[in-house]
Amino acid sequence: MSIAIDSLHFSYGSQPVLNGVSLTVEQGEFVALVGMNGCGKSTLLRLVAGLLTPSSGSIMLDGDPLRSLSRRQVARRMAVLHQTLPPVPGLTVRQLVRQGGYAHRGPLGMLWEASTSETDEALALTGVAHLADRVLDTLSGGERQRVRLALAVAQNTRVLLLDEPAAHLDVRHQLEVLTLVRELRQARDLTVVSVLHELDHAARFAERVVALREGVVWADGDPREVMTPALLAEVFGVAGRVVVDELHGTPRCLPDHALSDHSLSDLSMGG
């Protein structure tokens, strides 16, 4: 399942967010979207998921225009992991994860017992089978994120879109969730596009980093090539260093200080 984005524009009212984003993601890639808050990372993800409509430009899913597909057709191809779930009092983990089969079976199909094996597999793959009968409201942040992943896995798609999957988690649970995403990708040959806040996580877990600035793709490539002091300055507005992690062989970013408005203005003008 490839994703082809061409000259994508989007605005919230009179405020432009994306100004001509073009990007292609091939089957099996793990792509991390990075950039400052408000640069359009999550907006781009929602556009790809079909949750927003672009002002202009196109999105193709494996050769088919996204706009030509129904919501259920999109859900059969892509699963979206949102940062939060709407509160549903009394809903158990198993009941939630079973909803992942809606796109393939429809509302009546959700009543079939045949969905039990798919639900159990998703619970097992994400390590939350022991939580199956727990009410969602009783879970910790790390447990809830694993359950959201189980819901996405139960949807049985080839593409996984993640909106900051490690947000609001402590360091241990951040690593657990991102390691799990990587394992699921390998086990199911998934295409993963994820908004990530931590640059070190993007460099370690993704094989390709796409940095957004001012509504356009500012840098795109292997983390070992993209993660540079220039990127820290131009995209994130900080002066810093980039070193190689001796254990993983991936870049680590060491921000030193915020750049002044004058310095940022010079960078914008190419100075």
TrEMBL record:
GO terms for molecular function: ATP binding; ATP hydrolysis activity. InterPro entries: AAA+_ATPase (IPR003593), ABC_transporter-like_ATP-bd (IPR003439), ABC_transporter-like_CS (IPR017871), P-loop_NTPase (IPR027417), Siderophore_ABC-ATPase (IPR051535). It is found in: Cell membrane. Residues 3-239 form the ABC transporter domain. The keyword Transferase does not apply. Keywords: ATP-binding, Cell membrane, Ion transport, Iron, Iron transport, Membrane, Nucleotide-binding, Transport. GO terms for cellular component: plasma membrane. It holds the Pfam family ABC_tran. Coiled coil: none annotated. The keyword Iron applies. GO terms for biological process: iron ion transport. SMART domains: AAA. It is a peripheral membrane protein. Its main location: membrane. This is Iron complex transport system ATP-binding protein. The lineage of its organism: Bacteria, Bacillati, Actinomycetota, Actinomycetes, Streptosporangiales.
